[in-house]
């Protein structure tokens, strides 16, 4: 199903509209003062930064995640922060932010994971006396 945006007059799929206002597509709504004010209030209350400061952080790394350098692609990057002291560390894509969350922001655990990846199965070879591989399913 489709709906016509009364602002840009384009017919678009329903998922490109917020539930309120129903008559304006997401891309048009994001250009309004109401959206900017709502976003600014959210960033101030949750992270203590303004929308302008968020934009400066985003521009610092050229709209890319601060870990993988993947382009944001128009999506908002997460404001990453230290959960112990509240200090903002940077802006991350969903994937990188999720990795840090799953590793509980533990530097030693992340270093251990890095060493594990560098070993690339050497421990398995040592135990089994051979390289073991997952069968190719092609």
Q: What is the name of the CATH architecture of the largest domain?
A: 3-Layer(aba) Sandwich
Helix content: 40-55%
Largest sheet features: 2 strands, antiparallel
Question: What is the name of the CATH superfamily of the largest domain?
Answer: His-Me finger endonucleases
Mean pLDDT, all residues: 92
Strand order of the largest sheet: 1-2
Kindly provide the name of the CATH class of the largest domain.
Alpha Beta
Secondary structure class reads: alpha+beta
SSE sequence, one letter per element: EEHHHEEHHH
Count of folded domains: 2
Radius of gyration: 22 Å
Low-pLDDT runs of 5+ residues are none
In CATH, the topology of the largest domain is named His-Me finger endonuclease fold
Using the alpha-carbon principal axes, give the shape: flat
Span from first to last CA?
A: 37 Å
Number of strands: 4
Beta strand %: 5-15%
Instruction: Please count the helical segments.
Output: 6
Task: List its salient traits.
single chain; 138 residues; alpha+beta; His-Me finger endonuclease fold; 2 domains; two-stranded antiparallel sheet; 42% helix; 11% strand; flat
